[in-house]
Amino acid sequence: MAYFPLLVFIVSIFCFHFSMAARPVTDPVDDQSLTTMRYHKGALLTGSISVNFIWYGKFTASQRAILTDFVTSLSSTGKSTAEPSVATWWKTVEEYYKQSKVRFPKLTLGDQILDEECSLGKSLTDDDIEKLAAKGSPRNAVNVVLTSADVAVRGFCMSRCGTHGASKRTKSGRFAYVWVGNPVSQCPGECAWPFHQPIYGPQSPPLVAPNGDVGLDGMVINFARTFAGAVTNPFGNGFFQGPKEAPLEAASACPGVYGSGAYPGYAGALIVDPVSGASYNAHGANGREYLLPALMNPATSQCSTLV
Question: Which residue range is the domain that position 50 belongs to?
Fold first, then answer.
């Protein structure tokens, strides 16, 4: 694998874990591999899919609303939402389904399950994450586990900011799941950039978070990135490039890119809110503003940005 200094830096400051295995944050990305996103003929999500949230630890109602509004925004269309929008960003994911000939799923915001007392403790393993995810729907669902700032998860910050996987096949069905942690006190320089100074590389000033919460706005980025992977590669044999053990997926194929002209230490050209000074690239439901990662467009083999 060839080494490219610019891409090495980008990967070094982002923690990604996709499907069943992690790609170490120090792994470089091969330019040539960015043009070979392939469908591996596995099952994809289709039909009506419920997105259920399992909130593990303490989150305020306003913090929960940032992420639930994001899910609502994925299918929010019409004059009520300005462009560029979250729904337009999500249409790039739909391009994957056009290539697979599988009907694109219709997402609905499902259950909100609160586990504020941390029933499994505050130091979790991957098995614990899957147990928590099983509290959501056992079929036709993506169950999302979100851990609060004081909860440690094995590998969090060291090799990943979030992950997705799939439950074991049972009589009740099989569901995809996602986990994302709040990095604000454990590793904001790794999992909340560009809203915090990065640990490595150019030290440009951090951007103002669009929802006023560095940890939650960082979680939005990591959730968007991982959720896109969960939908396009839910069971480990959908769309990805590179080895199955450490795949590059829809968003991880475009590390560190949020707007046009992005380079290491610079997220790209973004929209700046004239009142708050916050940087974002997508409008969402209920007047929300979000910063979302670029997605690899399988039709063009290029990283697609909204701005």
Answer: 8-20+33-304
In whole angstroms, what is the distance from residue 38 CA to residue 153 CA?
Answer: 31
Cβ pair 200, 14 in contact under 8 A: no
Q: Which tens digits make up the pLDDT trace of 199-213?
A: 888 888 999 999 999
pLDDT tens, 38-67?
999 999 999 999 999 999 999 999 999 999
Flag whether 26 is in a domain: no
Strands of the chain (E only): list them: 16-18, 21-23, 38-39, 48-56, 106-115, 123-124, 141-147, 152-153, 162-166, 176-181, 239-240, 271-272, 279-280, 282-283, 289-290, 295-297, 302-304
Quick check: is 2 in a domain? no
DSSP 69: H
Q: pTM for the complete prediction?
A: 0.89
Tokens of 175: 């569901």
Q: How many domains does the chain have?
A: 1
Cβ atoms of 128 and 97 within 8 Å: the answer is no
